[in-house]
Amino acid sequence: MSDIFPFTIGMPAELRKVFLSHNVGSWFEVDVTIRSMTEVTFHVYGMFSSMWGGRGDHLRDIEANVTYGVLWEHVKERAERVAEMQLDAAENRKRQVEIDRRAAALLSAIGRAA
Questions:
Q1: Which residues of 79-104 are buried (b: 16+ CB within 10 A; e: fewer)?
Q2: pLDDT tens for residues 13-67?
Q3: Any residues with CB less than 8 A from the CB of 33 and at least 6 apart, and which?
Q4: Contact, 47 vs 54, CB < 8 A?
Q5: Position 114 pLDDT exceeds 60
Q6: Which residue in 8, 9, 63 sits closest to 38, CA to CA?
Q7: Nearest alpha-carbon partner for 61 in 101, 84, 90, 32
Q8: Is residue 1 scored above 60 in pLDDT?
Q9: Which H or E run contains 46?
């Protein structure tokens, strides 16, 4: 599980009501760290400029619990990305072994020719 959690995403629609029920004060933008299937942290930011907008200073973090299953699609997507990275890493290790073997053969041939 430590390969999956925690991870941070932008504010998903399904957590908006949860955020609004916990938030006190103004806000401009929110990121969410998903810590488990039921635990999240909202990272709340102000507005950089009333004229230009944009993310401003970090205002506060809000920890909250959600019903099991609400985060399923986000956790599933994260698990698929982690699995893909693991597969890529395994394929790269196999490829590197073959590269090392071929390089050693080439160097060996050069050594014999000298």
A1: eeeeeeeeeeeeeeeeeeeeeeeeee
A2: 999 999 999 998 888 999 999 999 999 999 999 998 878 888 899 999 999 999 9
A3: 6, 7, 8, 40, 41, 43
A4: yes
A5: no
A6: 63
A7: 32
A8: no
A9: strand 39-49
Read off the amino acid at residue 69: G
Contact 11, 32 (CB under 8 A): yes
Q: Where are the domains of the chain?
A: 7-113
C-alpha pair distances (Å), 62 with each of 14, 21, 36, 54, 65 = 16, 11, 15, 21, 10
Phi and psi for 2 in degrees, rounded to 5? Answer: -65, -20
pTM of the model: 0.79
The pLDDT value recorded for residue 43 is 97
* Residue 27 contacts residue 45 (beta carbons within 8 Å): yes
